[in-house]
Specification:
two-stranded parallel ribbon, mainly alpha, 8 helices, globular
Length: 180
């Protein structure tokens, strides 16, 4: 197993792009994962290869919407092709003498904007400290990851138990906060 990392990590990426990713400019996966792997393979002289994508059978829209990025790369969906669902994956882990000890709601990108406001509030109810680095990014770049609300505001909602009575569709942007 070879672990790859974008040179300088996420912080350097947002500095370089002078932005943070969001639903309209979702450059994080492309830069941090896809292009980083591509650069590594090219450094080895590998131009044509298969890319194994971990979309499950219960995620058919993700498979369908996947866009071909390069002619020399063929995407394969082994979990989808073998009809592996989230339930099957959970059952697999139940029978193991160990776990990854990562709550399923967190995944590898803890507060990803693609999770949506409700999931992020749920996460921040139990893990408010996860917001710190995200808030730092938003303040540094004067942008928000989600439209109309900051991670700081979502943490406040979560920590003040406001979630039950809060209409997330009516959230207005803070005055002076720019949105990409």
């Amino acid at each position: 197993i070879i672990r790859l990392k974008y040179e300088g990590g996420f912080e350097k990426l947002i500095e370089k792009r002078k932005a943070i990713p969001n639903n309209f400019k979702r450059f994080c996966t492309i830069e941090l994962k896809i292009k980083t792997c591509r650069r590594y393979l090219r450094s080895l002289g590998i131009i044509k290869y298969e890319n194994l994508v971990g979309f499950r059978y219960d995620e058919p829209l993700r498979v369908k919407r996947r866009k071909k990025m390069w002619k020399s790369v063929e995407d394969k969906f082994p979990l989808y092709d073998k009809e592996i669902t989230k339930e099957k994956i959970n059952n697999y882990w139940i029978n193991k003498p160990y776990t990854l000890e990562i709550p399923s709601i967190l995944g590898n990108c803890t507060l990803c904007f693609l999770k949506g406001k409700n999931a992020i509030i749920t996460i921040l109810s139990s893990y408010p400290e996860l917001a710190d680095v995200w808030i730092k990014d938003e303040e540094k770049m004067n942008r928000t990851y989600l439209s109309n609300i900051s991670i700081k505001d979502l943490r406040n909602i979560a920590q003040n138990n406001l979630f039950k009575d809060y209409d997330l569709n009516q959230v207005k942007p803070e005055i002076g906060r720019a949105h990409v």
